[in-house]
Specification:
By secondary structure, this protein is an alpha/beta fold. It is built from nine helices and ten strands. The protein has one domain: Rossmann fold. It has a seven-stranded mixed sheet, with helices on both faces. Helix 5 links the parallel strand 1 and strand 2. Helix 2 packs across helix 9 and helix 3 packs across helix 4.
């Protein structure tokens, strides 16, 4: 009993989560991917094969959103780290071909001219913070911070936005942890983890507790996709 009690005191569930995540990655590479997927996700791979030339996203996250939500028109999004709005964008296809609208967050001013030329949705030049805003210096200028909930409130977002896309691995977990999901929810969340297995496991653990399932981690590369269940 003493040994068991000592184990429980020092047990960290995150260590288990990281181990499971690494095992899933290895299995995903060594086994047939299609044997580990539901029929719905197999159908996505077929859909992606037909539509891949239309995708702007890394690993075709935009096509996943369309397939998962059954190709809706007039959807809504927030994309954090939008850069020029085209390269590796999770929302460009949705905006241009399906009439989606949302907020493109890009705190680095060097991208603003191209972003405004390439896209029609709202551009916000602040950075999204997990806590109470603050300021950062980017490109020689001070940039104001804003929480995700405050950003959504300012732009009149509905209680549930169709897609949240975060291309900011360093800040992603803090942004998610600092967000009030009961106030503003999402149907799909796509988050860059940059290949950091510990960060990836922590995000998956956190999102699971918020009611999101991670889908097809073997094919999403340096990002993960989460669907609200």
């Amino acid at each position: 009993m003493g040994a068991l009690a000592g184990f429980l005191v020092h047990f960290d569930p995150m260590h288990l989560a990281v181990g499971i995540d690494r095992l899933a990655f290895v299995l995903g590479r060594r086994l047939r991917i299609d044997a580990m997927m539901s029929p719905r996700h197999k159908a996505f791979l077929e859909f992606r094969g037909r539509q891949r030339a239309t995708s702007y996203s890394f690993a075709s996250a935009d096509l996943f959103v369309l397939h998962e939500l059954e190709s809706p028109r007039g959807g809504s999004f927030v994309e954090i780290g939008a850069r020029d709005g085209v390269q590796a964008s999770d929302t460009c296809l949705l905006e241009r071909e399906y009439g989606w609208r949302g907020v493109l967050v890009e705190p680095d001013a060097k991208w603003h001219k191209a972003l405004q030329a390439n896209r029609r949705s709202e551009l916000d030049g602040r950075f999204v913070a997990g806590g109470a805003g603050g300021r950062r210096t980017l490109g020689g200028r001070e940039v104001e911070g804003v929480t995700l909930a405050s950003l959504l409130h300012e732009y009149g977002a509905a209680e549930r936005t169709d897609l949240l896309s975060i291309h900011a691995a360093r800040d992603a977990l803090d942004i998610l942890r600092g967000h009030d999901f009961s106030r503003f929810g999402f149907r799909v969340v796509a988050v860059t983890h940059g290949g950091d297995s510990v960060l990836r496991a922590r995000m998956a653990w956190f999102m699971l507790r918020k009611g999101f399932a991670r889908v097809m981690p073997s094919i999403t590369g340096d990002a993960d996709w989460f669907v609200k269940r």
